[in-house]
Amino acid sequence: MQGLVIKKNATLFSIESNNHIYVLNAMGKNKEGGIFVGDKVEFNESITKVYTRKNLLIRPPLANIDKMFLVIALKPKPDFVLIDKMIIYCMLNNIEPIIVINKCDIADNLFIKEIENDYFFLTILKTSAKDGDTSSLKEQIYGICAFAGQSAVGKSSLINSMLGYQETSIGDISKKIERGKQTTRIVSLYKIGNGYIADTAGFSMLDLSLVSKITTRELSSYYPDFIKAREECKYRSCLHESGECGVINYVNNGKISCRRYRNYLKILNELKDKTCY
Ligand SMILES: Nc1nc2c(ncn2[C@@H]2O[C@H](COP(=O)(O)OP(=O)(O)OP(=O)(O)O)[C@@H](O)[C@H]2O)c(=O)[nH]1
Ligand SMILES: [Mg+2]
Ligand SMILES: [Zn+2]
Q1: How many Å lie between the centroid of ligand 3 and the Cα of residue 207?
Q2: What is the whole-number distance in angstroms between the Cα of residue 240 and the centre of ligand 3?
Q3: H helices of 39-134, where?
Q4: At CA 83, angle to CA 82 and CA 86, rounded to 5?
Q5: Which of 157, 172, 207 is the last residue of a domain?
């Protein structure tokens, strides 16, 4: 039979096939380390084959992701460098990044406007898990999707709102900050809308290093908002730090977001130092 690995808990794998869920113990024949949530597999009493993956994230371990919802909220204050790295990471791994502004019940217009301005090249959804305003997100779930976003932005709350019942654990923001711990640990896929979505903890995906994957020269090619401006740079090797640079001109003319550019320089410097996490 063919199926999709929707949950992994120690050596137990839950596999969905034709609307049934089969739980297999992958001890013995199957190398436990080699099968991930999101894997498409063939199985009978055990998993006999893992199909070639489109991509694989290591932390959290998740395979074959089609879309990544980057969740932002007014609180906790967004870390836009992380968001920009996440967008690059998605582009590198053939994943569509989508911005979700959650907690719109407390967001002010300026906050939303700035995000819409900075990320005009992406789909941006506005939700409130608190008010049950999550239909725009549900409609976007297709294939295998995952959340990324700082702890307490409301990822688990969004899943619960879409499911219509409480399935995943929700943490109290103040306690989280005190303990510095995340509420969500086990990776599992929930069947919602036309696909699946993984509840994942915090921004742990950003333990990823961009260093091994891109060079300083390549960095700006992962900025869709810089494409036009780059044509005006004097040198093809321009890193957009100084000199006769189209990107700098666009920033000065307000055609590229200052924040995006500032954070581009930060990531560029991290790549130079080879310490980009
Ligand atoms: N006002 C408001 N609060 C929300 C909303 N969504 C979630 N919260 C609150 O934000 C806090 C954190 O929610 P979680 O769903 O646990 O956050 P998370 O992103 O899953 O956090 P981790 O699992 O630690 O990564 C809880 O107190 C929620 O009640 C929302 O739309 N509006
Ligand atoms: Mg959570
Ligand atoms: Zn330039």
Answers
A1: 29
A2: 4
A3: 80-92, 109-118
A4: 85
A5: 207
* 262 and 157 co-located in one domain: no
Ligand 1 lining (C-beta closer than 6 Å): 102-103, 105-106, 128-130, 149, 151-157, 170-173, 176, 182-184, 201-202
Q: In which domain, by residue range, is 125 found?
A: 57-207
User: pLDDT digit string (tens) for 183-218?
Assistant: 455 678 999 999 999 987 655 555 456 666 889 999
Amino acid code (one letter) for 243: G
d(CA 182, CA 202): 7
Distance CA 30, CA 229 (A): 51
Same domain, 94 and 138: yes
Judgement on whether residues 127 and 256 belong to the same structural domain of the protein: no
Domains contained in the chain, number: 3
Q: What pTM did the predictor assign?
A: 0.89
Which numbered ligand comes closest to the C-alpha of 157? 1
One domain, residues 142 and 223: no
Answer yes or no: do 27 and 161 share one domain. Answer: no
- Burial bucket for residue 41 (CB in 10 Å: 0-12, 13-18, 19+): buried
Task: Mark whether 81 and 200 lie in a shared domain.
Answer: yes
Residue 188 Cα to chain centre, angstroms:
15
For range 74-93, the mean pLDDT: 93
pLDDT of 176 strictly over 90: no
Query: Per the structure block, which two tokens stand in for 70?
Result: 């980057």
